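User: Please predict the structure of the protein below. I'd like the answer in structure-token form so I can feed it into my own downstream comparison script.

Assistant: Understood. Taking the following sequence of 299 residues as input:
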Amino acid sequence: MAVVIAQTGGIMNATELKYLLPRSARQRLRNTQRWTQSRPSRTREQRDAMLASSALTQSEKDLLRRVPSVISYQDQMYRGNGEHYFKVGLSAIDNINKSLQAAQLTDVRDVLDLPCGYGRVLRFLVQRFPGARIYAGELMPDALRFCAKNFGAVPLQSAYDLSELTFDRQFDLIWCGSLITHLEEQRARDLIGCFARNLKVGGVVVFTTHGDHVAAQVTEQPDFYGLRRTEIPELVKSYHEVGFGYLEYPGWRGYGVSLTSPDWIRAQVAAEGGLREVYFAAQGWDRTSDVFGFVKEAP
């Protein structure tokens, strides 16, 4: 690795050196790296390598074979590791299948992915439910355009204020991966209300949370998503004492890492009313996040 001798006499590696660049130059550098990593030929090779391996079941291979391998260079969920990226999508579908089976829901016509990002899971939903209308819910206009263009999803503009977010239709299935995991307490409650409003009676919402496993990771890992180390003990303490903890990312407003115990989630859902738990898997998504499935009951 290239090094440079700093004026202080120390040695600086390439990773440290890039932070001496202006912010605009660092952004261009990151974009170039992402563009190189996400070349269509490269992501297609990564998917095909998975199809040729023995790590997947036949049903997983049948689904993955139909899934488009195109990945946006703006997709921060993809960091060059196509095997992990596609396995996360397969893991989401596995949890969705189990939730639908538990709810005895077989007729799925309208599906919402909220937030869809750049389609890490949505591309799998399109193939898993070929006869359904797949809706992409997201704050980022570029992500909505990407999902509409590449996966045929119907774009739905989301909103920061989740307390009043209502779409012009209700859904048989809502998938929500990695959203409650980043919200402060009131917005997490608001999101649960959003699920209840936007589900059809008999519809199922499947969403992910950070529970015991992530609480342990936050404590053990020296650098967890760039959180301030001095504030992490209070985050974990709050989680263990009341079932909820939240710590904002440095430099961000209204977005960070939340820890929610299963009991806390169940209490909020009970307070909202109208949703019945049919599925739970600790570390069910990507062996990290907990997964809940709730069905909407008739009034």
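That's the full token string. Residues 196 and 273 are 8 Å apart (CA to CA).
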